[in-house]
Amino acid sequence: MEFLIQNIFNALQWGSFYALIALGYTLVYGVLLLINFAHGDIFMVGAYIAFFVTAFLLGDFGGMASGALPGWAILALAVPLTMALTSCVGVTLERIAYRPLRRKGAHRLYVVITALMCGLVLENGNLALLGASRKKFPELVDKAIWTFGEVSVTNLKVAVIVAAVAVFLILQTIVTRTKIGMAMRGISYDKFAIPLMGIPVDSIIVFTFVLGSGFAGLAGLLFAMSYPILEPYMGALIGWKAFIAAVVGGIGDIRGAFLGGFLLGFIEIGVAAVFPSTLRDLLAFSILLVILWWKPTGLFGVAKTTKI
Amino acid sequence: MRRCVLLALAAVFLLSGAAFAGDTLKIGFNIPLTGDIPKVGESSRNAAEMLKEDINSAGGLEVGGKKYKLEFIYEDNESKAESAVNVALKLIERDEVLAIVGPNSSKQAVPAGGTCDDNRTPMISPWSTNPDTTYERPWVFRAAFLDPFQGPVAVNFAAKQFGAKTAAVIFDISNDYSKGLAEIFRDVWEKKMGAGTVVAFESHGTKDQDFSAQLTKMLAAKPDFIFIPDNYNQVALIIKQAHDLGWTGPFMGSDAWGSAELIDLCGKDCVGQYFSTHYAAAGAKGATKEFIDRFAAKYGYIPDDVAALTWDSTRLVLQGIQEAGEVKSSVTKMRKAIRDALASITQFDGITGSMKFDEQGDPIKCAVVVRINENGEFVFTEQVCPE
Fold it and tell me: Which residues of B fall within a CB distance of 8 Å from A132?
């Protein structure tokens, strides 16, 4: 029983990262019908930005006097700063890679290939700039380990899970309850008619990238705190898996991305907990394959027409 | 057009310049400068550069009464098995090196050893401990002890130090080194303590970052300690996550922990843990201390075992060249002479201890167990020599 509860917490934490990244995929896909394959690497950039922001706040680069701020204050500053800077990276990508192609009316296939290339540019740019050595993320907040019988939970684990749920609720509200959310859904519905209604399509798309990349930055920060070793390729595999999670959930749907992320987290941890962990990816993705086989549009997906 | 011609001419001159430089001895280095363990490659290169400067500033290496300058060619194998093979071929065919030092990790050294053996080029791996690297390969040598020796060292030390009766193991399934050592450890432990005393035997993949499911399973089995024969970058994550899951017991590690970067990545979670390795920097004496001091002054960190072993390996190659007697005109003949000289070395006093070579080209040498102290130094605890 305790073994089960412990693994549920493990799966909730691991699934939170998938969910946070999958939300970014699903937002951009929902609006533009574009699979932003660079998203996993934006997450990686977010983790590195978080590293440099905290190092700056800790005084490593002469930003502030060493020890001027307590750990929780640094964290409170690092969250908005990381999110803002990471969304700048996302918006830059949109500006220099996707928008010119969109203006020229390029087929979606070419935009997807461009996205793949952008991801590789981010990875290898990082490798060239910062070198191959791993970076160690500093410990900002004192770790508290709460033990109930055999079950151990850290404050960080709880924070990660809470953050994932909060982000989901915020996004769900923005998309379904606000005017700008209505505009996003409108572009998804018909991007040729929507400018005629006086809606600035480019600004809405930029806003979508700001949201998606900002939350990838948050995921990067939380990931760096949970698994404090950063390397240039850390976003590649987790990005791919989160994308699959978003597809299984029904890409374009926010609830789908959220549930898909947690579903993948639970399957992966569950398989590793019961079977030899060599089988983890094999079984996990076989299960997801079966789900798609049964429901090709994903759990919450709607065939064609409108998404988001 | 004219520019093309000029460029082509320049290229021809450069190439011919290189071809006519007959007074240099070329040695290749097949090392991981990027990928999972970049610090290992960096340490190797630093040690080799230091040795090269020593010799070249004294006029070069004396072979048969004549002095030759050394030229070291460093190629990045990206910590990947397939790249290590490509790098070996590149060094053998394009650069026509006399011998190759590296690769370091068994994951790359096992396949690259096959390539060097097939192409009749002497190779010496500084850091690889998997028996397959040199097994039935007359052209391949190494400077490190073997896992069949390291495994029992870890077993005996843990049994004595922790008073342990049961053990749990976590290892990287796609890494020859990690998998081989984990299996040796399990077999030796169960032979000593009885069947079923390795209560958990869990694997993970190279790119994994979350080990919580495996660790939960291991902790549920209540072992007396956890054995982690893994690379230092994964060790840092595994130990941290085990502590998060409430584990307070000891860990035991292997020589892949011994990187200068381990403490940077792992921090206070690693303090107090033990691992078996090739040498202990803290409290070294004689030539070893001299090497450590010079290296630390030059590069700003205490040399890890890879640096020391690369130094020894490169010196072995240079000794092989010297014992060949003269520099022959053809590269193939020279390679053969170096191999024969290396194979006939019976005793070598390196800074990682003195070693004898057996017929497989493996050294018989002692291992040390070190403890990580509060300052992150690797402190000598015990020396274990082969009987």
Answer: 33-35, 38
